[in-house]
Fold this sequence. Notes:
Layout: H1 18-21, H2 25-32, E1 36-40, E2 45-47, E3 55-59, E4 63-69, E5 75-81, E6 101-106, E7 108-114, H3 115-124, H4 126-152, H5 155-170, E8 174-176, H6 179-186, H7 197-202, E9 206-209, E10 212-215, H8 218-224, H9 227-241
Antiparallel strand pairs: 1-7, 2-6, 3-7, 4-5, 4-6, 8-10, 9-10
Amino acid sequence: MGIAGEDTGRERYHGGNALLDGLSPSERAIVSEDLVVQHAESADLLVRDGAPIEHVAFPIDALFSVAARLRDGAAFEVGTIGRRGATGTELSLGIANTPRAVCCEIEGSYAAMSRARFVQHLRALPSFRVAVQRAYAAQVFDIEQTVACNVAHGVNERAARWLLTIALHVGGERFRVRNEFLAMMLGEPNRRTAFGLEGLAEAGAIAFEGEIVSILDTATLNSAACECYGALHAYWERLGAAHNGAPF
Length: 248
């Protein structure tokens, strides 16, 4: 696996990440000066567990997976970071090392910023700091809701919830999902028949060919999903509606 986050180009940021785009125009202009748009391939490693956070990544249409690895080598997804947030938001709480590995789950673009410039902006721009901390709070809420979901709901409901969440995170309804990430997310054997995708396809909600999944009927997928997607979406909407330090 390659390590993303290195400066391989100088493409400027022109929008696509909700955390950044929700800033005031003046603050967004300041922060954007230190952003470089890069591309991540599926399975690219952004940061290893326990490693120092050297770069912060603001996804645009990429999706990043936070993974917990057990002693036997098995890995399970414990969080996802898409265009509503960023990796490395722990820096806003004074945490310099990431507790979990972060890798690219859905390939796409992201805006990268060095740790030094990110910390500088946190100190100088209060509303940027609040936006980052709210993104971290959303990640924590997502994890908490997912824990309840994994205990209370079946694999079909969880698969529908997860696909809707991906579409929201990446801003599209067609994406490549590698089998190992499905296994990590659902904690199921590495077989598509175990992931609830065939039932969703038979219902006309999705189509999949190889590792490419297309959402065909969002209403049917919503009906198949558990209540957790609605809870996650509602919390993200509340956070997204409160910009520049406004309470929510």
